[in-house]
Design goal:
54% helix, alpha+beta, 3 domains, 6-stranded antiparallel β-sheet, 4-stranded mixed β-sheet
Amino acid sequence: MVSRCTIRRLSDRSPSLLSALLNGPLAQPRIHHRIVILALLLAAPCLAGRLVLDDHVLMLLARDDPGIEGFRSGPLSLFHFTLGDAATNGALMDEGALLPWWSDPLHLNAFLRPLSSATHLLDFALWPDVPWLMHLHSLLWFAALLGVVAHLYRRFAAPAPLAQAAAMLAFLIFALDEVHGMTIGWVANRNALIAATLSLPALGAHHRWLQDGWTPGRWIGPACFALGLAAGETAVAVLGYFFAHALVLDRAPLTRRALHLLPYLIVLLGWRLVFNGLGLGSAGSGSYHDPGGEPLGYARALVDHLPVLLSAQVGLPMADLWFWGGDDPHLPLWIFSVLTVAAVLALGHLLLSDDRVARFWTLGMGISACAVAASVPGERLLLVPGVGGAMLIAALMVRLSDLPASAPGWLRTLASPLLALMALVHLLLAPASLPVRAYSMEMLGAALERAEEGVSKEPNIAGRHAILLNAPFDVMASYLQVRREARGEPRPATFNWLATASSELRVERRGPSTLRVTPAGGFLHTAPERHYRGDTRALPVGAEVRLSAFTARVMEVTSDGRPAVVDFELAAPLEDPRYLLLRYRDGRFEPLEPPAIGQSLRLPREDFFAAVLSPLL
């Protein structure tokens, strides 16, 4: 923790330090080049990362034969994870690839990202066994994105030297923001970098057309936006800045402003028609809510997620806790987020009401965040909202450093501590954390591979059904089959996990071939579990799910309708050599002797962050 003395020292020095920064390094004409180099150096730890999670799915889907029934290959459709079809989803559930037994049979998680798919095809064709080159590929896209953002900041800022220096302060905040670390460090998330890089130039072209009469901007803007959409739906968030531009910066009558937006809306409509025509989107999940297909679910997600995302952008980046921290911190995190956002926006209203450009960037941040709020909160979603968010923070810092004499006394008293706090969070802690965030996927990958060491890689494993009692979290188990198939390693015929250890589990042997599992919090207890089934009441008492390894039968439900007690009936006694019974303990899956009939096991709750950090500890 940072001591009060440290904050006090920063408070005393922050106005003069910021002034020196604005009138010194940030005033240099080519400072953005140095900032880009610094950002790349801080993000460089991602080069040491291995392929993890969806990286292996992309590799399988790039092959003519993915090797796992339920996957459908396609050269430009690598992001078609589940197809909303009961047959293919049933096959994935049966093998234990991606989907647990409680998944919605119509689970759909498929996206239109042909340009991003093409970049992965290039990776797999040229350097299929060299992950660091794939990470370097992503890092180069990040460098390109930074070049685009630096240009936008300069384009929208006034030509005065101080305004240009303030724009570079915003660029420094954006480039070194730790929230980008996971986006950079996860190869499969490259689509967000590409979509933002290709679509954001549309904003500059649009502004230049309306401000300077640059006619090519009329068609270059929509063309760039279309390219961004072809890389990924992240580009939809960019449209938030176009709406903000129309509301704040466009001085034409309202009808003409609408006409200025029309080409982009036509491009968006065309993209959506193709999207729907191909049967893509998200459905059956508690994590993703397609605004077009699930308007009520999206509205609820907006209320829950938007404050958390915005707070992570302008304050402390804690959005990942919403998904990975369990349900317990949801309410306090939401309240903290609402208060943080309210305080920053109130300060912005007080200090920046006369700054149209700052208001444009702030409004654009908010509208773009509405687009990404369809998914569960996470720092990796803040790539596009962060463009406006960094400018808001920079504008507030500049105003706080030089308050007029007419400012209220209480504000003049708080100005230095507030400025010091912003500098601490955005100019010290964020850059210091960026290397860790960029390396975080490697830490997750190491934890996953350490866990699966207990599952044999001998050829005879291909004839066995591996049954894990307590996955610490779903992705610890759901990618084992995918990872081994991608590497050509022996894998079990099926690998199924009975429950997630998001709460304490009681496992009782009820008969020669029957296990009863009772999680203290019930099944579908946390956001990661509900990712696979949004309707938590769809498995009532008596519901059965039949897989090759077992039949799951719901025996009791919780007060809110979730499965509470489930019996798993195997085709033969647990001692049959075709079964490999496993438990998770101390960071590893380990073989487990079946308990005697009538005996019970109590398996502790597992924490996501402790499991990921276990190889380091």
